[in-house]
Structures are given as structure tokens and as C-alpha cells.
Amino acid sequence: MTDAPLIRQASCRCGQLTVTCQGEPVRVSVCHCFACQKRSGSAFAVQARWPDEQVQIEGRSSIWVRTADSGHKATYQFCPDCGSTMAYVIEGWPGVTAIPVGAFADLDFPAPKHSVYENRKHVWVDILGEDVQHVTSTSAERRPGLNLLGKNENPD
Ligand SMILES: [Zn+2]
Ligand SMILES: [Zn+2]
Q: Would you say 66 and 74 are in contact if contact means Cβ atoms under 8 Å apart?
């Protein structure tokens, strides 16, 4: 018996840039770092990651590259019309693409299992769930060659 592959679609606010993801994400995380706060415009950001080959991006996009404190480059793809960031990749973590969870507008989306950069967490924010890994980390503690499911490595 073969189940149809699970497909989720994210879109920017104006709708011209879409991301189609196949299968369950390999990681869903919350990041409280200031860069993610500025990216999302919110007090924290939530993102899900899939292997690159399970992510299909369609539509026009612009690129912005940021160099993190760790020295790693992060490359963001955003809609040139409405400005929504729809995908990003981190140099130190090759092979996976991060998609902002809000872009799916899906209340059934899997809950985050990782909450990182809690040293930047607003005091009124709590990420709930018994199996959530809470990490206070800074970019200086990051290293290249991150293990995808590693317990001690926490890319945003
Ligand atoms: Zn747009
Ligand atoms: Zn972050």
C-alpha cells in the first residue's frame, strides 16, 4: 500500500511566490535571535526545514545574503513585490532549506521541537511542549558541519 506523498504549500502574502514541500520537515524550530526577529517582524521566528530536493520554489524572488556572527553566510529568498521571506539556506548547514512556518498558514503544522537563542527571548514568550529542546546559544558557539538532528547544534 502506498500513501500519497504529503505535500504542503507556502506562499508569500501577494501569492506570486510559492514553495511546495514534500514529506514531513526534518526540523521545526523557533529562533529568538535578533536577526530572526527583524526578518519576521515578530518577537520570534518559526521555521521548518526540508532536504533541498523536497523543496520546490516557484515565482519571482530576490536574494539577500547575511553573514552571521559565526561567519556563516545565510541566503534569503524573498518576494520582490510583497517582501515576504519564503526560503533560506545557511552555509554551515548544507542540504536543507528553511521555510518560515507562517507562510504555510496551516494550524495543523507540526509544533516546534527546538527553541534556540533563548538568551534573546522576550520575557513574555514561552515555547510550550514537554519535548521541546530549549537552548541558549550564541553564534559564537556555532560550528560548521552541523549534524541535522544533533542535540547540541542549533542553527536558527
Ligand atoms: Zn509576494
Ligand atoms: Zn535566528
A: yes
**What is the 31 CA–ligand 2 centroid distance (Å)?**
5
Alpha helices (runs of H) in 11-50, residue ranges in sequence order: 34-40
Which ligand is nearest to the Cα of residue 98, counting in written order? 2
Joined grid coordinates for residue 26: 526534518
CATH numbers and ranges of domains, the chain: 7-138 (3.90.1590.10)
- What spacing in Å lies between the alpha carbon of 61 and ligand 1's midpoint? 9
Residue by residue, pLDDT tens for the chain (156 residues) are 567 789 999 999 999 999 999 999 999 999 999 999 999 999 999 999 999 999 999 999 999 999 987 788 999 999 999 999 999 999 988 999 999 999 999 999 999 999 999 999 999 999 999 999 999 975 444 444 444 444 334 455
How many angstroms separate the alpha carbon of residue 136 from the centre of ligand 1? 33
In single-letter form, the type of residue at position 139 comes to: S
User: pTM of the prediction?
Assistant: 0.86
- What's the 11 CA to ligand 2 centre distance in angstroms? 21
